[in-house]
Amino acid sequence: MAGETTSTPFYSELLIDGELVAGAGLPEAIINPATGETLTLVREASTPQVETAILAAHRAFSSWSRTTPAQRSAVLLAIADAIEQRAELLARLEALNCGKPLHLARQDDLSATVDVFRFFAGAVRCQQGQLAGEYLPGYTSMVRRDPIGVVASIAPWNYPLMMAAWKIAPALAAGNTLVFKPSEHTPLSILALAPALAELLPRGVINIICGGGEGVGSHLVSHPKVRMVSLTGDIVTGQKVLQAVAKTLKRTHLELGGKAPVIVCNDADLDAVVQGVRNYGYYNAGQDCTAACRIYAQAGIHDRLVSELGDAVASLRFARKNDADNELGPLISARQRDRVASFVERALGQPHIERVTGAAAHSGPGFFYQPTLLAGCKQSDEIVQREVFGPVVTVTRFDELAQAVDWANDSEYGLASSVWTQNLDKAMQVAARLQYGCTWINSHFMLVSEMPHGGLKRSGYGKDLSSDSLQDYSVVRHIMARHGQPLV
């Protein structure tokens, strides 16, 4: 993709109150992680521009919130069409900005983004609620689901456009207005979509501003006219958001990372496990909060799993000159690569941990880190307990299944998990005990728009995707009407 830089247009204007405007704040260099080269500069929003965006969303709420589900559905379908029409450009920007292989950006990120908008276009027209009725003599009660108000949405850098869809589509569908802030590292794809959004939505319904968390993000989440903050990020950022919103008692919707356990029983299909972890422990260079990164392998299958998985991981292709040959890209920044390297270095300082493959930064350009497999890890090890967010998978041996379940649950995270066994009864019992928002059986990482995605414990709360997300972006209200004189 390095050769595509000069032929791909970059968009840098923010969307504020229906107008495309240059940011008035400091410039941020946007880097291609695959090469380390600067792609373009994007100026962040100034404090007055953030204020203008919030007030525009506040003004737009009174009319947008009164539109019908059918009207909002039509707009979401039009946005999906606009993304599809611009798919090649958006995929190229996503690949350049994140460093990910272009073919994966095309087939995975763009198709998923379009599907999310189309799903919510349908879901908003199919909502169900409690029956209206007379629960007190002389009065009729009904329940409404109404939008919340201005939503401040803050997205991460690992899937910029798809995460934008996860936040924008349900919030708009529910009747809210938005101020959306992409990661300061990866704003290019949503900025390229901004002109289409400006045409398709009334003024102020969606505003897109850029900037870092300490300046732009802090002003956004603390503003009294913002009624809800939706964040996908790490635990520390989530804690800062909660502290900031406490003064105004805003609603929050938080997805704060994960450390997904993968329980592999003696009777598992070993080939399926190896292929599944090769695909989904290292997808997106491991920069995924659901990555299959923490394996618990039963003693009878452990040695074969480590050996065969090690060979499979060593075969992963990256940093090839022909981008179509690559299976994974770099880490998002030199800082993130160095963070991953420091985790691995500390782990290998433990005498019981074995390097099976990888465990080094790539020697060429860009922020690549070798796909890494570490065996002999113990439950108490830092590398097992903390989210690395890189292409690193650990293996821990267990004897009894109950022990593995306890270890899997012994984590501050609670987002995703999987269990691998050919005994369905065993799988269902384990799945019922795992304290995670999602548990896959004999698979990992599969997401669909119809099913909820969200965590437990310190992985946060609130659901992305599914009709549950529409509920998170709306409020329940009780309406009670007193009757007049009885007819009979």
Can you walk through the features of this model?
- This protein has 488 residues and is α/β, with parallel strands linked by helices.
- It is built from 15 helices and 20 strands.
- The strands form five sheets. The protein has a seven-stranded mixed sheet, sandwiched between helices.
- A hairpin with a 2-residue loop joins strand 1 and strand 2 (19-21).
- Helix 2 (69-85) packs across helix 6 (188-200), helix 3 packs across helix 4 and helix 9 packs across helix 10.
Largest sheet, order of strands side by side?
A: 14-15-16-13-12-17-18
What does the average pLDDT come to?
96
Beta-strand proportion: 15-25%
- Poorly predicted ranges: none
| Number of separate helices | 15
**Mind summarizing the main beta sheet?**
7 strands, mixed
Query: Could you tell me how far the N terminus lies from the C terminus, measured between alpha carbons in angstroms?
Result: 78 Å
Task: Give the oligomer, counting copies of the same chain as homo and different chains as hetero.
Answer: single chain
Radius of gyration: 24 Å
| SS elements, strand count | 20
Helix-strand category: alpha/beta
Q: Classify the helix fraction into a percent range.
A: 25-40%
